[in-house]
Structures are given as structure tokens and as C-alpha cells.
Amino acid sequence: MGLAERASSSSGARLGMGAGGAKSHAYIQYPPLRCDIPGAAGVMYDDGNKLLLVPAPSKVYSWPTNQHPPAELPGVTDIKEGPILGVRYSLDGKILAIQRTNQEIEFVNKESCTGFKQQCRSGSDRIFGFFWTDCPACDIVFVTTSGLEMYTLYLSKNGLKLVEYKKTHVSWYVYTHESRLVLLASGMQCKTLSGYQFAAGGIVRLPKYDVTMTKQEYNRKPVLAPEDIRIATMYGRLYCVQVDRVALQLHMYRFYRDAVVPQGSLPIFSSHVAISVVDNVLLVHQTDSQVVLLYDILTDPRGPISAPLPLLLRGAPSPAASSSSNTGKGSRRPLSTAEATIYGKGWVFINPDLVLDHMHGLLWRVRLDLEAVAASSSNLPSLLSFLQRRRFDAPKAKELSLIVIKSMIIERRSLRLIASAMDVVTASYAQATRPSSGTGGSGYQPMNKSTAVSSGGITLSAGPRAGSQSSSNPVGKAMSKSKIVEIEQDAETVSDAESIISSEIEEAPLTSSQEQTSAPSSSRVLSREGSKGITMESSTSNSSSLLASGLQGLRMGLPAPYISPDDVLQSVFLAIEEEMCTDSTFYVAAIVEYMRSTAKENVRVPPGLQALMVQLLGRDERYHELRQFVAGKLIDPSRTVALQLLDVGTNDRETRKLGMEMLRLLHAHCDYVKLLLQDGRLLEGLRYIRQNKVDTIPPALFLEAAANSNDIEKLASVFRFCLDFLPGFQQTPDFNLYSSRLNQQCIVGSGC
């Protein structure tokens, strides 16, 4: 059974299946958010507060969009009747701004039920729209035909104050609250874009840049439309995604503080496309063919993750269930025609992953089916990298990652492939748990990519990376080859157990050296108060990673897909032990590959994994290899490993001797002395506790062993030892018991 079939059988009908058994990598979840309000003036989305707004003649209804199933009862704000062109709440939810005309915006205070109006700066200008900010320089920004008007809110004076005006010709604009970035289009073809970021650290002005537009005809110049531009945030980086409908390509531009750098192009296969970003994955909806392309910008080469598949509806009631459902309380609502229509005429794709059907008042959220992606992927290391970068459904990504690794070993894939897979999951875990040189920051830090974090916001950098260097250790050197079944033939022969095990027990460090970051340039920042939002760093700054998002998530108790060594032990190696019991050679080689990858990242494996390796080698009577593994420090000394060596050593004297010596060097006094007594080495045990000043072992243990030997001289020697070296022994019950026993044996001996 292959990986895809194994994953399919474990997931059943849930694996990427929609109605009729169709497979899909992306889907929308039923039920949608419904907002059917009689007399509504339209449906709008407030991305600053993540609210779906429906203005009516005298009220504004609002629903939070981050709930599923959606809330049934909306919030209501009373307003005056009049035309409504746009609606947005302030970021604290206290003020409602309503664009009434092309020159005027009305403000309603929900707490005091008072209001005021504000016109744009010039009567000849037209307001395209507005947005609220958490920037310390201003509270609200008007986007007009002549530029940006920045205002501060003064509730005490019931009005706004103009604090700054950015004059520039504007044909249209695009803004997302997620990035705090506004792009202004100008020029005859609207292909010249300029941007301002209203982050909590200040206002950052981006340089102007021209997008690439392919001419369809010689005398006809294409005009860039707002729907051709999307501001996308992926892995903590800001991108401008431009649709070139003539060349059938997506042009990518990455934003920096002092530059906008082209990042290449992605192929599309239709001019009718829409864009979503789901869990840092770029989804290109081909609305005419009704299929979805999935792109991961960290995948190399940049091609679709998998074959294009349709966008499906999940969780909807079947027609039979809808027709037979009762009309009473608790019955499921039948699926309407609008809800059953994919890519309807009223669909509008909202940043980053929402779809608004403004004609029918429905809001959908696009989601990824990780099980379907895993089942259809053939490049397993690349699949593991993809799963390790997922955050939206981290438990599922972790579960699938473990299934992939387990299946690779069961199906006996090549050791080189298994080594690559082990390297992926170990590097991901190591970076997530590696301590950083800073305490602030948030967001996602992709593996092997540069992202410097300021004190609370994500800083994007294009500077050269200062790669972290792991400290060398003998384990990593000894396990450098991917196919290890035996130690090299020219290794030094070890004959004595004491020389095999190092007298100094050292624990490998859990993490590598910390990385440092340089302070970002502030040449273009107008204000540095606060530290929220996503900010951009200079493209020439020399910064390296400061904080991985996985570490941030672990500190906050958030789920993460990272796979720890304990996860690998419990869910992979122990889970398949019975299936591999007939021949453990390949099984041991897979364990060695994992230990090699952990050594390279300075991640410590649990002793249980090394004990399992000892058990497998002993099962096949590969005692020589086992001793060589211990000598080469492939197996670290621990009590768990030592006890397993003793268990395996019941059939091999040298292995048992190795386990006892490991206990001695680990100062496991009680275990070591008990083993000496089992072997009848009573006097050696006494010398051991005297030399090591051990006072945790009761004298009765030695006295009883001496008495059971029926050797009166040995019992007398132990008794004398207790009198000489154990203070207070004469006041113990053991003194009276064994002194009387010695006297009796002496009397019996004299009588004879």
C-alpha cells in the first residue's frame, strides 16, 4: 500500500472528498455567514475589525467573520437615513464612519450617540475611500483623487484635525489592514504604483515602481485595473501580486523600505483569475474552468504544489436530507441555489481568504485540505517541508507528517530519501526551539529564510544572512554517512568496557549558537512610537533571523506542526516495531539516519530511542556493532540505555559488562551495587560504596547477601565493615539480628 493509499484509508471519506466523491485541495465550508437584511444598501467588509457590514436605511448590521459556525444575531448601530458609499468602524469599535458622498464622510459616536461630518480638503477632489489606522501619526486616512489626507480624531471637539497631506495623482487605490499598506495607482495606464505603510512604528513611504504589462496589440496599451493587484502577506513578507492577463502570468514584487524588488513570475492558465492567500499559500482561482492552483513561495522550483483541482463545498446537507428534514427547531436549513453555486456572478474575493457573494449576502472562507495535498504529492521531502510550514491546521499537519515518515520506513524507501525527510522535520523543530537573542517579535519565520523581527512587528529583509553554525560533536561526525549498518573498518578496536565508555558523561546541547541582528535603518520612518503591525526593512541591511514564529507559538501555547524526538519515537519507531520485527537491519538504519539529522542540528534524542536501537541490535545478535556504536558515541550513556544493555547482555558477557560500566560512570549507585550482589561480588560492592561515599544503600542488603552465601567468613567481613565504616550501626536492628546469627554459627562451628 502506497503513501497516498495509506493516507486515504486512514482518513476515509474525509480525505479531500466533496459531494459525489470528488477530490479537492481547497474548499469552502458550509454554512456560510448569511446577511439577508430587507432593504439593505449592499454588503461591505471591514478588514480592520474583521466585520461583515450590511447598511440599511436607518441601521448598520455587523457580523464577526472569524466565527464558524457564524453568529446568527448581528450587532446593530442606529444611523440617519441617507446615501451610503462606504462604512468602517474605528479600530476600537466606538466610532462608525459612513461615506455619504464623494466629498463627505459622517462620523457616529456609538457611546454618546452624537455625530459630525468631515469634507475632503478640496471641493474639486473626490474621495475614493478611507481607512482607520493604529499609526501614531494619524487616526484615519482619506484617499482622494489628489492624494492622502491624514486626520487625527478629537472626540472632545467633535471633529477631525488634518495633520498631514500627501499630494499625488491617484487613479485608484488598494489597501489591506493586515499589511497597513496602501498602494496608489497613477499614470495613463495606471501601472505606476506608489505606497505608504501606516504601521504602529510610523509612516513608511515606498519608492514608486512600474509593473510589467504585456501589450496585446501594437497600438493598444492595456490599463491596469484594481482587481489586477493584490497585496499579499506570506510568511511575514509583503508582496504585490499582479495579474498579467495577456501573458498569463502572476508577477511578484516584494516590498522593502527603500526598494520594490521583482521576485519572478508564476504561470497561470487563464485570464479569468482571482487570488486568495490561505495559511501563507497562494491560491489562484481560475474562475472560467473552476479549478484552483496552489503555489507555495518557499517551494523550489516555484511551480504548483499539485495538479489543479476544483473548489468544492464541504459540509452541505445532501438534497435527500434537506427534503426529509423537519421544519421544527434544530432542523438543518436546505441548501439554496446561490449556496450551491461555485464561482457565482456575485463572488468577490476579499483579502486574504474570504469570498463575498454580495448579490446573495453570503460570506465564505477558503480553506486548504492538507490530507488531499498529502495524498496527491509524490515528492515526500518537499511535502514534509510544506506541512511543517502550516499554521492554520497545525495538529493535522503534524499528524500527516508523522504518517509520511512512518510510511516511508514501512515501505522501505531509499535511505537517501528517508535522510532528506528526517533532515526536514529535525531542522524545523530545531529552529522552532532554538533560543533567540531578542525577546520581542511575532510572525512566521520560514526555514532557511531571512526575517528580522523588530520589537513587536515583522521586519522584512533582503540583506545577506548570517547563517548559524552548529557546534561540531563526535556524534555528527560519526553519523555523517546516510547508510550506516556498521562502523568503519579502520576504527580503533576497543577491548575493555571502561575504555569504550567515556569517564566524563557529557550531554549534547539542545540548541545551536544564537543569532544576532542589526538595528533597522530609520531614514524613511516619520515616527517610531509603538511597535505593532508589519514593517519593512531596508533591502541593503545586514540582518539575520531573530525569532522564529514557531518559538513564539510555543511560548504562547499555540499549536504547531513541529515534530519533536519524542513524537518520532512514540508515533513512528515504536508504532512500527511489530511490523519490522522480522528484519531490523533497515529499521536500525532508519533510526541511525534520524540520529544523524538530530546530531547535525544539536537536538538531543530521548534515551528511549537509543534503548530501542540497543534492543534491535541485541535481537539480531549484532553485539559487535552495538559495542562499536557505544564506543563511537552514537549511543549516549544513560540509565535507560544501560539497563537495556544489561537485558541484551544476558546472552553476551561483554555487552553486560558494558551496561554495568555505564551505570558506574553514570553514578547509578543503587543499580550498580545490586548487580554486583547478583554476581556474588560482595566485597567489591563494599569497596565501591566506601570509595564513592555512598550512604543511600542500606547495610541489610549486604548482610542478607552474605548470610545467604552460607559463608561465615564473608558474613563476618561484612559485619566488621559495617561496624568500622557505618556510624550508629550498633544502634540499628540489623546489628542485633546479625550479631546473634554470627554467635550462633560460631557456637555451632565450635561444637562440631
TrEMBL record:
Annotated spans, Disordered: 433-482, 505-543
Compositional bias of kind Polar residues: 445-458
Bias-annotated ranges (Low complexity): 511-523
GO biological process, one term: regulation of autophagy
Domain Regulator of MON1-CCZ1 complex N-terminal: 43-158
Pfam families associated with the record: RMC1_C, RMC1_N
Gene Ontology terms: cellular component: Mon1-Ccz1 complex
Mic1 domain: residues covered: 551-721
Top-rank lineage group of the source organism: Eukaryota
Record-linked InterPro entries: RMC1, RMC1_C, RMC1_N
Name of the protein: Mic1 domain-containing protein
The organism of origin for this protein: Physcomitrium patens (Spreading-leaved earth moss)
